[in-house]
Design goal:
This protein has 13 helices and 26 strands. It is α+β, with helices and mostly antiparallel strands.
């Protein structure tokens, strides 16, 4: 839960009855004038801090604050808090060109159950608290206290239960102020808002951090308090970017294309008044945290710079912004220039004919011959059975068949068995395993990769840059049959774009790269929805290149990858719904090398360790890491949903 220094609090009317029992075993009291009062909170899911008065008198800090729960009821009886005192050195204070910098002064922990509190902590029993530091800021051994600087008072409340056993969440809060008057600080260092972090990480506190406030992170990761390289403006960039040794270029970690644009994090907003510092105040420390292939002091990769005094002479704000956003802008411009439309028709001999039309930005057909030399790759992947593909990435144990892959164009040249008819690319697949039900439908995923320079398409050659374009998906049946489609109502690709960006080119390198766009959209409840259904062309129930060893089936793979990277903690980050009926048409999924698991259990255990579920699995009809035939025969015998009724808001729901 992220807390701000001005969280709203409702002033409660003083209760007329006396002797109210407060949380923590204390008696609640009527609020003093202007203070909250009334019945204390009985249940506490969130803590909201409001700072009433914070000031420093002759080096002694005193803070008065109010704590309420999510219903604005006063919280009484908090047991353990740590109080931090810091000050902000203004821009240029430590040298010409240097950025502003937090200095850590001291902290004190008040632990009531342990009987330890160096200062004076008062619980006023009405939601209001006060704390007076025992130490004088002038006695700080970390930094020299300067009364004229902006000060920060931060609080960490530990998740120690109240005396009556009521649980409370770990929470942080902070306030910036001028020490002598308590007035709001007139300068700051608030560069990024927590919402930018949460766009990928959900709630960063739930993701394993002690705080949900990025400003609190910056308060502790300060020079002198953490080891070199762990200062916030250094390590936060370092963990989000990698140096590619192959081409000596800086690339986003985790394949998060959105990070290519600095403004994915550095967003202009009132609560981050210093958001533009990334362009306005270039320093070797901040720049070097991304550009790790540059040693400014040694003159490696850049002219030698002894300090930051000359940086802005060349790297002015406008130029820096343009340089760091140009790549993303160019990609968007290129992607918008071309599209594709496709048809897939099943033939009597069980082959299928794919016809592909390249279109311009207005949707008009473009003769493929006119672009041929500029096309790096048009890749196609064909499978059968969109809801439960029956062709494996490798030969499936069920029928011995694997997906059909075919490049229509590669390195500017038309490939064998592909023709151009009236400007359209045409290819006929080998015989496919068409059948009844879901298997009456074949589907082909198409990726387009163009050779580019800047914002123009150019002839392909060694060393020429490439840009992945909007992907396409075609469904086809034999004459007279109605096509089946995989459901796309549980994950909207917009959720993926929220973290990865609009030009996220999935699997570029090994593949042509697939940009999921409105071109793939279908109507769901009257709304054009871009799904992730095309991915099952490769991410089959039999897994991918490693079989089941890497849990490559689509139902599991995204859970495994994002779980390993620790970027999600809430189903709603990706899911807008759960389509539980989808399991009715699924068979077993490959969960280890040569082993298969019934589908519901396989999906759940891609996030949850089997032992954490709390009951046996095999006695619920599941087969875990069993034989292919055995697991598929049992696929529709799982009884999980007899009791469990998971929703995106609470996947632990059990029918009572």
């Amino acid at each position: 839960m992220m807390n701000t220094q001005k969280t709203k609090i409702a002033l409660l009317i003083a209760a007329s009855a006396l002797g109210l029992t407060a949380c923590g075993g204390s008696d609640g009291s009527d609020g003093n004038p202007g203070n909250p009062g009334g019945e204390p909170a009985g249940a506490i899911a969130e803590l909201h801090f409001t700072f009433n008065d914070t000031r420093i008198n002759e080096g002694i800090t005193k803070v008065e604050f109010t704590v309420t729960n999510e219903e604005d009821k006063p919280v009484v009886g908090l047991q353990k808090m740590r109080f931090y005192a810091e000050q902000l050195l203004p821009e240029g204070a430590t040298g010409a060109g240097n950025s502003s910098q937090w200095e850590y002064l001291l902290d004190e922990t008040c632990d009531l159950p342990a009987g330890k509190c160096p200062g004076t902590f008062v619980d006023h029993k009405n939601g209001r608290y006060s704390y007076t530091f025992g130490a004088n800021l002038a006695d700080s051994t970390r930094s020299e206290y300067k009364a004229e600087l902006a000060q920060r008072l931060a609080i960490r409340n530990y998740n120690v239960p109240l005396p009556d056993g009521t649980t409370v969440p770990g929470t942080t809060a902070l306030v910036d102020f001028m020490g002598d008057t308590g007035a709001e600080a007139f300068y700051s260092r608030k560069i990024v808002v927590s919402e930018s972090c949460n766009a990928c990480h959900g709630d960063v506190q739930e993701a394993g951090h002690m705080t949900g406030d990025v400003n609190f992170c910056a308060s502790c990761h300060t020079p002198g308090r953490v080891s070199e390289g762990k200062e916030f403006n250094v390590f936060i960039h370092d963990i989000h970017f990698d140096l590619d040794d192959a081409d000596n270029k800086i690339k986003p970690a985790f394949g998060v294309a959105a990070l290519e644009n600095c403004q994915s994090c550095h967003v202009e907003t009132e609560v981050a008044p210093d958001w533009a510092n990334w362009t306005r105040i270039p320093t070797a420390q901040s720049c070097g945290s991304c550009h790790t292939n540059i040693d400014f002091a040694a003159g490696k990769g850049h002219s030698m710079q002894a300090d930051n005094s000359n940086c802005v002479a060349c790297h002015n704000s406008d130029w820096t912004a343009e340089l760091h956003t140009a790549q993303g802008k160019a990609a968007k411009e290129l992607v918008a220039k071309l599209g594709m439309s496709t048809t897939l028709v099943g033939n009597e001999d069980n082959s299928a004919t794919l016809t592909l039309v390249i279109t311009d930005a207005a949707g008009n057909a473009v003769d493929a011959n006119s672009l041929m030399s500029k096309i790096q790759r048009i890749e196609t992947i064909t499978n059968v059975g969109p809801n439960f593909p029956i062709m494996g990435y490798n030969p499936s144990p069920g029928n011995g068949l694997h997906k059909v892959t075919k490049d229509l164009v590669k390195s500017g040249a038309l490939q064998a068995d592909v023709t151009v008819v009236d400007g359209k690319l045409v290819y006929t697949t080998p015989a496919l395993p068409f059948g009844a039900g879901d298997t009456n439908t074949a589907f082909t995923f198409v990726g387009l990769e163009m050779c580019v320079s800047g914002t123009e398409f150019v002839d392909c050659a060694q060393g020429v840059a490439t840009q992945s374009m909007k992907a396409q998906l075609a469904h086809g049946t034999k004459a007279g049959e109605t096509a089946n489609f995989r459901h796309i109502d549980s994950v909207n690709f917009a959720s993926c774009q929220g973290c990865h960006g609009e030009t996220f080119d999935i699997h570029k390198g090994y593949h042509a790269g697939f940009i999921m766009s409105e071109q793939l959209g279908r109507d769901v409840d009257g709304k054009l929805t871009v799904g992730v259904d095309a991915c099952v062309a490769c991410h089959t129930p039999d897994g991918t290149y490693a079989g089941g060893a890497n849990k490559g089936a689509f139902e599991m793979k995204l859970h495994v990858v994002h779980g390993e990277e620790g970027v999600f903690n809430d189903c709603r980050q990706c899911h807008n719904d759960f389509n539980l009926d989808a399991f009715k048409v699924k068979g077993a999924l490959a969960t280890s090398a040569g082993k298969y698991t019934t589908p519901i259990t396989a999906t759940c255990t891609s996030c949850h360790a089997p032992e954490s579920i709390g009951h046996g699995l095999t006695n619920m009809g599941a087969i875990v890491d069993g034989d292919y035939v055995e697991a598929n025969q049992a696929a529709q015998q799982e009884t999980c949903f007899f009791c469990h009724q998971p929703t995106v808001t609470d996947h632990t729901v059990v029918k009572m």
